[in-house]
Each structure stands twice: as C-alpha cells, then as structure tokens.
Amino acid sequence: MKAKVFLSCGQSRESDEAGIAAKVADGIRELGFDCYIAVAEQSLLGLRENIFYQLNTADYFVFIDFKRERLDVARANIHRGSLFSHQELAVASFLQIPALVLQEDGVNPLDGMSGAIQGNATPFSDRQHIASIVAEQLRQRLERNEWSTQTHNALTLHLPPQSFSDALQPQGGLLRHFQVSVRNNHWRRHALECFAYLEAAEDLLAARRIQLETIEFKWAGSTLPSVRIGPVASRRFDAFQFTHTNPINLGFKLFTDSTEFCPRLERSCKYKLTFVVVSQNFEPARKSFILQFGHTLDSIGFEEDE
Q1: Which sequence spans correspond to the domains of the chain?
Q2: Which of 2, 83, 85, 235 has the smallest C-beta neighbourhood within 10 Å, fewest atoms?
Q3: Selected residue with higher pLDDT from 288 and 21
Q4: How far, in whole angstroms, is CA 233 from its chain's centroid?
Q5: Neighbours of 64 (CB within 10 A)
Q6: Residue 116's CB: how many other CB atoms inside 10 A?
Q7: Average model confidence (pLDDT) for the chain?
Q8: Side-chain half-sphere of 189: how many Cα atoms within 13 Å?
Q9: Dist CA 192 CA 183 (whole Å)
Q10: Separation between Cα atoms, residue 83 and residue 12, nearest integer Å
Q11: What's the gap between Cα 151 and its chain centre?
Q12: Fold that domain 4-143 belongs to in CATH
C-alpha cells in the first residue's frame, strides 16, 4: 500500500501552472508514492467529499506557493501567494500532516499560513525546474527515513491467517470464535479509540436486509469497547461465534446488557456481513464478508467479499 501525497499548488488557467502540477505529480509517483492533485472546488459538497477527504487520508503534503498579484506598488517584487493553496495548508497543518513547502521568489515569505507555521520554505525561481526540485527534496526525505512510500493513513479490515479459534468457556463447553483483523497501515501514527460495529447484514438467499442496532463488538483479548492500534500493527475483534454442541446457534460478543441489541441471524443461511471500524483520528474503515453455515462446524464458511 503506497503512501499518498496531497499536492497543493496554484493552477491558474491563464498560466502554465496546471501543466507544471502534472509534471510534479508524475515525479512524485515515480518515487513510489500515490499523488492527489488538488483542484479548486466551487461547492461545499465538493470541498467535503474531495478536498477535505483527500487531506484527511493523506500521508504527506506538498505545498507549492506560486506568486500572484503584486502587494505593494512601491515594492515591485513582493506578491501574495495562492489563496486556495494557503487554505489547504492551514487544514494540513491542523491535521499535523508532514509537509514540504516551496515558495516562488517574490512571494511574501510571511504571507498567509507560511509565516504562521514557519514552514522553512524552499525557494525557487524557475517554474520549469520545480518538478525536479520537488523530486530531489522527497528523495532526500526518503534517504533520511523521514518519509516512507510504504505507509498509508488508513485502517483496513481483513481475515487473519487463522480466522477462528476454539476456547473453553468458564461455565463449560467449547465456543468457536471467528474474528476480523484491523490493520493500522500508518508507520508512525497510532489509531486511537477504535470501535467495531456490524454496519449491515443481508440474507443473500432470501434477498432481505436485516435490521440492526448500533452496538459495539468485543475486541479479542480486551474487556474494553475500544482499543488503540499501534503503527503498522493489527488488532482483532470477535465477529461471531458458534457452540460446538449446537453449530446452528450463531452468537455475538457485544457490549450490551439487553438481547434487544443482538443481530437476528437465527437460521442456517448465507449472509453478507459488513463491518465498520471507527476511530478518533482515522477515516472509518469497512469491509464485507460472506458467512455461510449449515448444521455442522465443518459447514461454516467465512471469507472476504470480493
């Protein structure tokens, strides 16, 4: 999974900036990153679904501050920077995304967010060389192990190598637990306050959706409803369980004191189960799985939905 770089730079239609941005993005991708080129959004929906989402899931931020109109008639070489890019820089700063800041000669060095965050901007004078400058700056960060291409600011769900385990219960009897593993793909960032939920359940043979309540699932090896997942680490939660003596009896480990909140999957069937994990500092992660079972333990099948 590649790290994603959010590229923020002016793309004035009256200039060559859009072409320069494309070349910079190509150089970033050649180094092994994914790259998202920010474009101006004209609606709140576009900001929320594109710019804000891409920023919140970005691993790194590259900010290129092209000069705009002159600020002071008496000082011919003092210009303001790109307003929209400075707004993106402000959000990236709030999200604590590691940033590479470059500023064209002539831009007021204390203008906008550049002065506020003291970004130690790298100056440049020739726009045609900016792609190679960015590539070299990123290459140096990779060599110093400050940035990495093998990271991603996201949680992912998947089946562990051994998707079930048998455990003896205190009151007697064996339960077969099936689990889902949640991986934190970021190399430095801890995932905080992670909660697991069954978001949707569908009876595939009857073609019907099953009504669900929002209720926390239990994490394996924990008595708390939420856990921390370390960088490049995984935690498992209990998806469901069967008793050895009655495999038709599908059960769940939930944080509830009422059976009213338990999912109603009461007969041997084929189900599509969609789990979601929400975190304090990561985007929600979801994945669907197929559960099929009959009257024996050997009939139970649990696999990721393609």
Answers
A1: 4-143, 155-304
A2: 83
A3: 288
A4: 15
A5: 28
A6: 13
A7: 85
A8: 26
A9: 13
A10: 12
A11: 11
A12: Rossmann fold (3.40.50)
Residue 103 predicted with pLDDT over 80: yes
Rounded to two decimals, the pTM is: 0.78
Nearest CA among 149, 154, 151, 185 for reference residue 32: 149
Residue 122 burial (CB count, 10 A): 15
Tokens 């050997």 identify what position? 298
Q: HEC states along the chain?
A: CCCEEEEEECCCCCCCHHHHHHHHHHHHHHCCCEEEECCCCCCHHHHHHHHHHHHHCCCEEEEEECCCCEEECCEEEEECCCHHHHHHHHHHHHCCCCEEEEEECCECCCCHHHHHHCCCCEEECCHHHHHHHHHHHHHHHHHCCCCCCCCCCCEEEECCCCCEEEEECCCCCEEEEEEEEEEECCCCCCEEEEEEEEEEEEECCCCEECCCCCCCECECCCCCCCEEECCCEEEEEEEEEEECCCCCCEECCECCCCHHHCCCCCCCCEEEEEEEEECCCCCCEEEEEEEECCCCHHHCEEEECC
Pairing of strands 208-209, 191-203: antiparallel
Tell me the chain's radius of gyration from C-alpha atoms: 25
**What span, in angstroms and rounded, lies between the C-alpha atoms of 218 and 225?**
6
Q: Are 202 and 272 in contact (CB under 8 A)?
A: yes
Supply the pLDDT for residue 278: 98
Distance CA 104, CA 87 (A): 17
Q: How confident is the model at residue 84 (pLDDT cuts 50, 70, 90)?
A: confident
Query: Which of the four CATH numbers 3.40.50.970, 1.10.1670.10, 3.40.30.10, 2.60.40.10 does domain 155-304 have?
Result: 2.60.40.10
